[in-house]
Amino acid sequence: MPRAGIVTFAGKPNAGKSTLLNRIIGQKLAIVSPKPQSTRDRVVGIHTEGDVQMVILDTPGLLNPKYALQRAMRATSLEALRDADVIVHVIDATEGAAEPLHVAAGLASPPSAPIITALNKADLLSAKQRADPNADGDRARLISAATGQGVAELVAAVAECLPESPFLYPEDEISTQHLRFFVSEMVRETALEQLSDEVPYSIACEIEEFRENKTPVYIRAVLHVERDSQKRILIGAKGQRIRSIGQAARVKVEALLEQPVYLDLWVKVLPNWRKNVNALARLGYQVQDGDGAGGEGKSR
Ligand code: GDP
Ligand code: MG
């Protein structure tokens, strides 16, 4: 009997969850950035090997929610914890002793799924630290998502915890998310790479048009910012910065689609979108009842 189930990656922002997902899936899916809070949505990767299938959820950082955006992120994370058959708690091993997941997540009790602790960034530890990881019990594993060290062993340990079940998705599928989503994440990631502090968290990317039946593929993307001053920064002198973001993003998107792409990139001001539930819903974020949107949350 094959095994299959949902594997949720949880942990603090910057612990390396997205890097680990990409390492396991072998293709760049989740946005990876040195700036925390860069994963806002629940990215699903599917890893099928032999008679085991893992449907992997990457969670946005578990934060103290302040804005509607952060509440939506946290709600998404908690939902992914509830849906999990196995939880991988990714911890930055260089940060020393870590709290148990339910404490870090502010939950009254531990989630019901088994938790495997992955102490990540082993490559940054000294030999002495590696020999003595402050692990919580025999399930903790030292890994490096960046080098791949210990990742195969972690995957094997996760597989052992999955229930016997037929596969949940076709074998050759790597993700249930639309290409649009990955394209928008790539454009946003590229903007984050080319900007310093201040602006990044105020950027959302919306794909307004995606015409695959043309060569080159035509994609119109809009980077939404909150203020005019941010728009000016993003565009740069004589439009130089936005051109450079557009070029770098196009190269990434072409690699993903394996086709030439015309990326038509715009910058617009959507005032205070991070605090505006209607704007959040429009941009594909899950908005909860408690945020005043009423009715069902929407997810991409
Ligand atoms: P997330 O917020 O948990 O999804 O973290 P990311 O995957 O976006 O990673 C945050 C930062 O840590 C990025 O700069 C990664 O390149 C870096 N990183 C992730 N895993 C490792 C690792 O194993 N070793 C090292 N040295 N850096 C890592
Ligand atoms: Mg991430």
Class by SSE composition: alpha/beta
Helix count, per DSSP? 9
Bound molecules: guanosine-5'-diphosphate, magnesium ion
Mind telling me the CATH class of the largest domain?
Alpha Beta
**Widest beta sheet: strand line-up:** 2-3-1-4-5-6
CATH superfamily of the largest domain, by name, is: P-loop containing nucleotide triphosphate hydrolases
Shape: globular
Please outline the major beta sheet.
Answer: 6 strands, mixed
The total of beta strands comes to 9
How widely separated are the two ends? 32 Å
The mean pLDDT is 80
What count of domains describes the coordinates?
2
Task: Tell me what the CATH architecture of the largest domain is.
Answer: 3-Layer(aba) Sandwich
Order of helices and strands: EHEEHEHEHEHHEEHHEH
Short synopsis of the structure:
With 300 residues, this protein is α/β, with parallel strands linked by helices. The chain has helices at residues 17-25, 68-83, 101-104, 127-131, 151-161, 179-194, 228-235, 240-257, 277-282; strands at 3-10, 43-49, 52-58, 86-92, 115-120, 141-142, 204-211, 217-225, 261-269. Magnesium ion is lined by residues 17-18, 30, 38-39, 58.
Which characteristics define this entry?
300 residues; alpha/beta; Rossmann fold; 3-stranded mixed beta sheet; 9 helices; binds guanosine-5'-diphosphate; binds magnesium ion
